[in-house]
Specification:
Strand content of chain A: 25-35%
Shape of chain B: flat
CATH architecture of chain A: 3-Layer(aba) Sandwich
Helix content of chain B: over 70%
Number of helices of chain B: 17
Oligomer: heterodimer
Radius of gyration of chain B: 22 Å
Structural class of chain B: mainly alpha
Distance between the termini of chain A: 13 Å
Order of helices and strands of chain A: EHEHEEH
Largest sheet of chain B: none
Distance between the termini of chain B: 47 Å
Order of helices and strands of chain B: HHHHHHHHHHHHHHHHH
């Protein structure tokens, strides 16, 4: 089970990012828990300055803009 | 967003020759741009209306300016997407960390223009700067310049007013950001940050450069076009349509008494109306251009434009999470004062 966190203040791009991740994970059959982190203090603690950011199992894998499909796919490649 | 469904061979083709694609694109773009004026005239000719009538004037204005601005926007947003990819927020922060105020304010305002920025990222960016020890006044210079002097505003100004006004806006916007940031820095406002912000652990601003290929930079340019032009085109259309109606139907010099140079109160009024108004540059500039043509003074119009773009209520609400009301008041006060000054100086000089 991968723990995915989407960092962002709830803007359209952040919601879209969360949706895309859920879609790709479902399509690949990778079980994930998806959490949206909207608290600025918590976002800052990851050192992310440009939202949306994506954290997988505690590591920042993306920051700034909606990630591309290929990029999301690469996170769930076995 | 899945991008264009190109067949694999095709996609591999452009990845192998990015510069060829860029050159072809540039030639096609210039060709289209040159076609605009004759195309719009002949298009208006197809309608059974008098070219010199109110409707004819409005229609020609719309049919020429809407595609022109959209075409300019596409080209410039693409180039800015490529330029932005060289200036990540992390790199900008590393450039600003540990610098003394003064020169750093100039640097911060300039970096504000080229670093990718969206108002929903204002707070994480602010926190990141503070954490890395970027002085508060320098951070403000960045935060004022980034939304105010952006490629959308500059493109519209260039397309509708010409390069002189675009350059003027660029230098005045930078001037306001540098001076307002400098003044805010002198005011020693650190104690008015929210407590948890002051108590955040301070870190070093390390920046490890990753190699990014030119193909990837072009891809981020294309993504910027999809995201930005995809979002602002309705504003451009509506803004230019309203502008076209003003052009065609409002009598010449109608606005001179209300928004002209003689009306001293028009500048503060413009700022007062502009601050809470939330629109983006794309919607407001075409309207402003039409107002100018009908006798409004340039200083008044510039002040209005700057206050709409630089200060917006939603952004202030977000900033409230990290700044106390006193600090927000100081921020709005100093920036508005700078914009007022720009308005008055312009009305006096021109």
């Amino acid at each position: 089970m991968k723990k995915v966190q989407v960092l962002g203040s709830g803007c359209a791009n952040c919601k879209r990012t969360a949706q895309l991740i859920q879609m790709v994970a479902d399509a690949r059959g990778v079980p994930i828990t998806l959490e949206k982190v909207e608290d600025f203090q918590q976002i800052a603690s990851f050192g992310v300055m440009y939202t949306p950011g994506v954290v997988i199992d505690g590591a920042v894998v993306h920051a700034g803009g909606v990630p591309s499909n290929e990029k999301i796919e690469s996170w769930f490649a076995q | 967003m899945t991008g264009l469904p190109l067949p694999p061979s095709h996609a591999a083709g452009w990845r192998a020759h990015p510069r060829l694609l860029l050159a072809t694109g540039a030639i096609a773009w210039i060709g289209l741009y040159r076609l605009l004026a004759p195309a719009s005239e002949s298009l208006v000719g197809l309608f059974p209306i008098d070219r010199a009538s109110h409707v004819g004037t409005s229609l020609q204005f719309f049919l020429y300016d809407a595609p022109k601005v959209l075409l300019l926007l596409t080209g410039i947003v693409f180039l800015m997407g490529i330029i932005n990819s060289y200036f990540t927020p992390e790199r900008t922060r590393a450039l600003l960390a540990g610098r003394r105020e003064g020169v750093a304010n100039v640097l911060a305002a300039s970096l504000g223009v080229v670093t990718p920025f969206c108002s929903c990222s204002a707070v994480p960016l602010f926190l990141g700067f503070v954490q890395a020890g970027v002085p508060l006044g320098v951070t403000f210079s960045f935060l004022i310049a980034a939304p105010m002097v952006n490629e959308i505003a500059l493109t519209l100004l260039f397309g509708l007013f010409g390069w002189r006004i675009a350059l003027l806006y660029l230098s005045l916007g930078l001037g306001v950001a540098i001076i307002a940031g400098g003044v805010l820095g002198r005011m020693r406002l650190e104690k008015y940050l929210e407590t948890w912000v002051r108590n955040m652990p301070r870190g070093v601003a390390a920046y490890d450069a990753q190699h990014v290929s030119f193909v990837d930079r072009m891809a981020s340019g294309a993504q910027a076009v999809r995201e930005i032009v995809g979002k602002v085109w309705p504003y451009v259309i509506v803004g230019i349509a309203v502008g076209a109606l003003i052009h065609g139907f409002v009598p010449q010099d109608y606005l001179a008494s209300v928004m002209g140079k003689e009306a001293w109160w028009s500048v503060p009024l413009a700022v007062l109306i502009g601050v809470p108004l939330y629109s983006n540059a794309a919607g407001v500039i075409p309207v402003v251009q039409a107002l100018l043509a009908k006798g409004a003074a340039l200083g008044t119009v510039l002040a209005f434009m700057m206050s709409v773009i630089a200060l917006s209520l939603p952004e202030l609400v977000i900033l409230r999470k990290v700044l106390t009301p006193r600090l927000i008041a100081a921020f709005v006060g100093v920036v508005s004062a700078g914009i007022l000054l720009v308005g008055y100086v312009f009305n006096a000089v021109l």
